[in-house]
User: Which sequence fits this backbone?
């Protein structure tokens, strides 16, 4: 099946810093989503981005489907950005099964 | 618009018991998927239902089963619980696209049910 790798696994930032999270996948996809998991376990939708670039406030994401990677940018980080960020993909022809990466654990300090 | 709801939020069971978890999708969404999250294995796909039919199944033993009702609500059942079944169980719903958009669907997750097996 498709493989999804996220880097870095852990990231510690000071408030106000910028960061880039990466997601590499091993096969063509027709769905790619970025999630933020809050301390209670809920997955919060950040971006649905099988290709192209999107922005939402301080967050933006870019997926280059032909090169099989996606990037999540966080600018001017805040302590509330702390948590785990997951990339999940759906390869073509697999109904709606999402395959998740192992996540990037982000800690933003004052 | 109400989001995906899951009940119960927390459960404590003992080995050998069985458990049923419930998921109500977003109104208008006909597809429901279930995922298991554990510290060791991460987030893994369990199964997907669309129009009361199981469309896809992950690599889990037959003790894990599910169903979907005509109102799109879904339940999953785990029989003969083992310690390793302790996990966060997440349900996701999406609007099933048709035609050339088939497969393009943003999934939305519920808050999860945290199951502890003692």
Assistant:
């Amino acid at each position: 099946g498709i493989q999804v790798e996220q880097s870095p696994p852990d990231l510690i930032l000071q408030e106000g810093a910028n960061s880039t999270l990466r997601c590499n996948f091993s096969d063509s996809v027709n769905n790619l989503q970025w999630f933020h998991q809050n301390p209670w376990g809920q997955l919060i939708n950040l971006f649905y981005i099988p290709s192209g670039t999107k922005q939402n406030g301080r967050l933006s994401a870019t997926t280059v489907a032909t090169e099989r990677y996606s990037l999540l940018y966080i600018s001017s980080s805040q302590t509330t950005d702390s948590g785990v960020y997951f990339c999940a993909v759906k390869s073509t022809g697999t109904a709606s099964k999402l395959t998740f990466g192992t996540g990037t654990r982000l800690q933003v300090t004052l | 618009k109400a989001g995906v709801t899951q009940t119960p939020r927390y459960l404590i069971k003992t080995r050998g018991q069985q458990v049923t978890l419930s998921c109500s999708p977003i109104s208008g969404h006909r597809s429901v998927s279930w995922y298991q999250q554990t510290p060791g294995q991460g987030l893994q796909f369990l199964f997907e239902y669309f129009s009361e039919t199981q469309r896809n199944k992950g690599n889990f033993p037959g003790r894990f089963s599910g169903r979907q009702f005509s109102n799109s609500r879904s339940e999953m059942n785990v029989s003969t619980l083992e310690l390793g079944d302790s996990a966060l169980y997440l349900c996701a719903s999406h609007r099933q696209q048709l035609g050339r958009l088939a497969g393009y669907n943003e999934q939305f997750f519920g808050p999860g049910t945290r199951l502890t097996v003692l």
Notes: The interface with chain A takes residues 31, 33, 35, 37, 42-45, 48, 50, 55-56, 58, 88, 90, 92, 94, 96, 103-112, 114 of chain B (CB under 8 Å). Residues 7 and 66 of chain B are 15 Å apart (CA to CA).
